[in-house]
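Deliverable D5.2: sample structural annotation.
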Amino acid sequence: MQFYLRSFIFVFMVGLVGVGLGQPASTADRPYLAKDVQQAMDFLATWTRVASGQDFFRDANFAGSQSCGGAGCHDQQLKEWQKTWHSKILSADLSAVIGDFNNATVSFEDVRAIVKGRPDSNLGKLQNVPIKVEVRTETSGGKFFFVIVDPKDTNSPKRGQRYEVALVVGGKWQQTYHVRPVDKDGKPGEFYFPAPIRWSVNPDKKATPAGHWEQVNFQPESWVWSDGGQATPRKPDELPVARFGEAKCMGCHTTGFKFEQSAGNPHWKMVGTTPVPGQPGQQTGELAIGCERCHGPGSKHIEAAKQKEAAGSKLDPVRDQTFIVHGLKDLSLDQQNQICGQCHSRVGNKDQRDLAFQNKLFVAGTPIPGDRGFLPGDANLAERSFFWSYANPNATPGQGMDTFWPDGRGKKSRTQWQDHVNSAHAVKGGASCMTCHSFHGDAVEKDPQQESKLRQPVKELCETCHNQAGAAKQPNKEMYAGSLNAASSQHADQGVQCVDCHMGAVGQRMTRTEAGPAAFDVSFHGTSVTLPVVNESAPNQPNAGLGLADVRGNCEVCHTGKHVMANGTEPPPKTAQELLDYVHNIKASMKTAIDKIESRVKGNKSQAGKTNIQLSNAQANLGVILLDGSMGVHNSRVDRTGTVSHFGGMGECLRLANLWAELACRDPAAQCTGEPFTRVSGPITDPNPSVCLAK
């Protein structure tokens, strides 16, 4: 038997193993909520697939989230949903306001507004004269206001153009606001406009103050004219039509609306599709990401449940046609991802270019009759949208290079879909957004307060699949955590978790505030690891990038910021060059070790069965290292001088591979000629276990 490691084939069965047909057990109040990643994968294909949301919901109407509760239906799920940010993403409840409206002043420098009379299509383009814009906040009678300050108005009480907050957007990471600009008669208008001020929540929930107003963005140039080097507030009826919320925001913050534009009217309008009880002919929609946004219009489901109730029974989700979508059971992985991708992505409408979200489907420029916009179960998101990317030639300024790093990773918030669909999790692993996230409230019983709505605590989440017996069939957990006979990784000892390196915060959710530059606090939702790019002219500078927008490597998430591990460990600061050297030294050392063991026995001439077994065992130990995929980084140990140590899991694999190789070479017929990786003298007994990291 000849020993050629390079020709050894490992089958990467990620995600496909474990997809079964059994219905997992779960708690009584959540009979169809997967409690962990494995159950989420087991759910796949247990029920009937939905071929198309348009067909499945053809005769169904939106009924509103509150219709899901009551009569013993989905009370628990409704209660859980009400705790999520999906339910609070858009609200008319002003008690949700957390921004400082106590006479605070928000200043925007270098605003590139246009001169009155110039078309609004020039907004966003670089203007010649930058100006300063100030916005002042006010509170009165339980209402919240902001004033676009007019620097030339020094006499009137308002000193500018005053607007009242009508809607509150979010509040977990940021909070923005919408107003209804008054018409020429002074009455609240029909349409919403996003405010120029944006409150950024302090990521440290215990810190004071609780947040800050952002000082860059949110499109202050839309609210003023450039007038002789100063800002003159626009009148409400002069606000740019293309920036109104119906076209730019509402498609991802509401449920049960359709978006239409009347002939001759530049405004897009939200038209409700949910019947109002007791008001025939009246229809509304929901200011939130409601249940039906993910499960589909529920009127037929509700009617079916009522018919069952009248007959003295309940709907059976397996035997009965329930007319509703269960994301894990009814949808393919691609359909699952696309439900989330509607909003958790940076997109624009492919055909209705005024809109920043999906709407009706067009083919060759003609709308498809009866299309109702994207519905759960549809799989044509790409036909409805153009997706932003760093290299997209159709992207306008701010859509590509400002939003993504050159390697494609998200640089700002809301790029989760782009990150995920290009990752190994989606391409190879058969994992969707719903595989890891539950989307209902307290889905993780062990950690009910965690904000990401993960199915398991983050460490368990990764290790469920990434172990020798898991779906990934890779020894990542064993290599990183070690075993009874092998030490753990240096990083593991310091409290570093998988997500700290593979899904670290390489993006920014906000821009600069008066507290300083924006923090990197948006998690990457792919799996690849980008190493630092070293600036040759300043190799010792932290995060020193080479040209392309100072690429933020994954290692820099911890070693150039103030990221603290789950166990309280603070990573030591490292330069880009030091981080590169660390990884390259480990990989180079591992390659050298494997090459030596391989070279030692590749000329084997023995045909003895025992020798072949010994060579196979040597190969199996090296195979564990290769199958792990990190070439030693998952089990790295480097001393203070930067020297790579072969102790730990990878060291045990090399030790066993070397012992088996030397045992084989003691067969005189083997005629091994290469230098041993480590010389072994004296008698050698067969190692037990024969393969490293074995249980």
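Annotation notes: The CA atoms of residues 590 and 631 lie 6 Å apart. Residues 576-601 form the longest helix (26 residues).
The annotation will be released with the project's public dataset once the embargo ends.
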